[in-house]
Write a structure and sequence with these properties.
The structure holds two protein chains of two kinds. By secondary structure, chain A is mainly alpha-helical. Helix content of chain A is 67%, strand content 2%. Chain B is an all-alpha fold. The chains are: A mainly alpha, B mainly alpha.
């Protein structure tokens, strides 16, 4: 494939130049935010290294509290998501199970049509989740999309393995935990990571379902600190009225960094999985 | 390759045996035999019924005058009153115009960006370089919209934002990017490209990896240069993928960028920012016009459904398998 004509080289150089430009534009804003969060005098060129912004953040209850909330809903929520999704996907992976196709159809319908924001809000309210952290975990406990991909994944496990274990007297619960789950561990890890990222990043559910400010996750606090305080008047709802405090630029940036660190930590693991194409698998059987 | 084939044959054989056995038993016996599988299904089914199907049934409130003190059962039926009101409101046209604008920008700006980046990446011969760039451009996809909008507020604000500092240093006037009605849509599309254009390349890269290398060899023999290879071989071979993705993207334009728009909206740009979902939230949950906003939501869901099914049908016609 190595041809060394001038045209080809020129093509390569242009390509590398453009891609470097693309890469830099993607990464520069974030690097700028990280660097400035450690600087005492923000501006075009940040100067003087300081940890003041982070010290301030971790000394206020609002921030630490919201971080705890975010960690709590991410860990517990991922666990709930995975348990429910795995159980359902496992049962649906049995092709001969009576009623399976009807259930699958019903799941598929939810991907195409939904009740919408207002009726969903009323159901969440009727089930008593309003103003509890459960509202951030339960109403989206199973992603129909992940469920179907995981079901397809379980179907690929050779049936002989399952039949053999059954003949040896293995119970259904044993089958799931000793054979199916261990064999699918990479896929389940991938879905766990994607669920976790979604839970950590969710924002709108929090402002819709939760009005107690001590139950707000870090994304809501971030919006108040950065967006509302930067002159964005935002939606003039009652709960924004207490956010008239303005924060220094470094504090805003440090909040962004803290809200992003968990994503950066899991990113290498995520990348391993989506590079393998776990999630781009066909939804079809 | 021999081993997996053998397995497949065996499994279809055992399935056949299984089927004949199964047919002899009654349905109930079969179900009792698999009772544990049903037990595993219970939590999931309850979840789908309560949080997905109950709201669908709750849509009925769009045809009522729901009053919280009367409750769902005793509120009076009003037929299509809320729909009639919605279609006669001037806001309806604003919402439609804004949604169409964003969808159009998405198709003519965002979409070509993903293709170009994918093509550029595909031409890279140094694996190391390619992987590094890929690592960079995928990251923003995993950031929340709050973070993305937050970063742009910090960069673009007139009070010490870098972009405006640079403009000032170069002798230009400061531009209020965040409060300007005319700049709202460019900002929106900028954020969309920054966040997801890299991620969107994945599916194109997968398609590009499947292009037959023999085609390139043959074209090179005929004296084609790199640019002509790209234009005459690479692009045509992913044309069908491009068409399918374009159509499918059209299918869900009702759902484009709700959280992003919500976060970018402020008092200065509401006229160009408001889309169906933000309107439902503002009128419904903030102003308490529940039935009316449920009707707006239902209208949005139905249009969305028609678009998804229609685009999927078109995608199938275009020669590829649809998604549903």
């Amino acid at each position: 494939m190595q041809d060394k004509t001038i045209g080809s080289r020129l093509f390569d150089y242009t390509n590398y130049f453009l891609l470097t430009l693309v890469g830099l534009t993607t990464i520069m804003p974030f690097i700028y935010v990280v660097i400035t969060s450690f600087s005492a005098t923000p501006g075009l060129i940040p100067k003087e290294f300081t940890l003041d912004a982070y010290r301030y953040i971790f000394s206020t209850d609002t921030f630490t509290n919201s971080l705890m909330v975010s960690i709590y809903i991410t860990v517990l929520g991922t666990l709930i998501n995975l348990v429910l999704t795995c159980l359902m996907a496992y049962s649906l992976s049995y092709k001969h199970l009576p009623g399976r196709n009807i259930i699958l159809l019903c799941v598929l319908i939810t991907m195409l049509f939904s009740g919408g924001m207002i009726p969903t809000y009323f159901v969440v309210k009727a089930t008593g989740l309003i103003n509890t952290l459960w509202a951030l975990m339960i109403p989206n406990a199973i992603s129909a999309f992940y469920l179907i991909i995981l079901k397809n994944f379980f179907q690929q496990i050779p049936r002989e393995l399952i039949e053999a274990a059954k003949i040896d007297g293995c119970h259904e619960i044993g089958l799931l935990f000793r054979i199916v789950l261990p064999l699918s561990l990479p896929a389940i890890a991938a879905f766990g990571l994607f669920y976790a990222v979604g839970l950590w990043n969710q924002y709108f559910n929090s402002i819709m379902y939760i009005s107690d400010s001590d139950k707000w996750p870090v994304q809501v606090i971030l919006r108040q600190v950065v967006i509302l305080a930067s002159g964005g008047i935002g939606e003039s709802s009652s709960m924004d009225s207490d956010s008239t405090v303005t924060y220094s630029e470094s504090i805003k940036m440090a909040t962004i960094v803290i809200a992003t660190i968990p994503i950066i930590i899991v990113y290498p693991f995520l990348q391993k999985h989506f590079a393998k194409g776990v999630l781009i698998g066909s939804v079809k059987e | 390759m021999a081993q997996p084939q053998l397995e497949v044959q065996e499994s279809s054989h055992s399935k056949l045996q299984h089927k004949t056995q199964v047919n002899k038993k009654s349905l109930l016996t079969r179900m009792w035999k698999e009772r544990w599988l049903y037990v595993f299904l219970v939590p999931g089914i309850i979840y789908f019924i309560v949080y997905k199907y109950l709201p669908m049934w709750g849509i009925l409130m769009a045809f009522m005058d729901y009053k919280p003190y009367l409750g769902f059962w005793d509120s009076p039926w009003v037929g299509l009153k809320h729909f009639e009101r919605f279609f006669s409101e001037p806001e309806f046209w604003t919402l439609l115009r804004n949604t169409l604008w964003i969808a159009t920008l998405d198709l003519i700006v965002f979409f070509p960006f993903t293709i170009v980046i994918a093509l550029l990446l595909n031409e890279v011969r140094k694996e190391m370089f390619k992987r590094t760039i890929q690592t960079f451009v995928y990251v923003p996809h995993f950031l929340s919209w709050v973070v993305v909008v937050g970063i742009s507020y910090i960069l673009f604000t007139t009070e010490g934002g870098v972009i405006n500092e640079i403009l000032a240093k170069l002798g230009f006037d400061k531009i209020n990017f965040l409060m300007n009605e005319d700049l709202f849509r460019p900002m929106l599309i900028l954020q969309m490209v920054w966040k997801d254009a890299g991620w969107g390349t994945i599916i194109f890269l997968a398609a590009l990896a499947g292009v037959n290398p023999g085609l390139y060899e043959a074209a090179k023999m005929d004296g084609a240069n790199r640019w002509r290879l790209l234009w005459h071989i690479t692009l045509p071979s992913i044309r069908s993928v491009i068409v399918i993705l374009l159509i499918l993207r059209l299918g869900n334009f009702m759902d484009l960028g709700f959280e992003q728009i919500f976060l970018m909206t402020n008092a200065m740009n509401r006229e160009v920012a408001e889309v169906f979902d933000t309107y439902v939230y503002r009128v419904g949950l903030q102003q308490g016009q529940f039935s009316y906003s449920a009707a707006v939501g239902l209208f949005k869901s139905i249009v969305g459904l028609i678009l998804v099914l229609g685009s999927n049908y078109l995608a199938k016609k275009a020669g590829e398998e649809g998604i549903y």
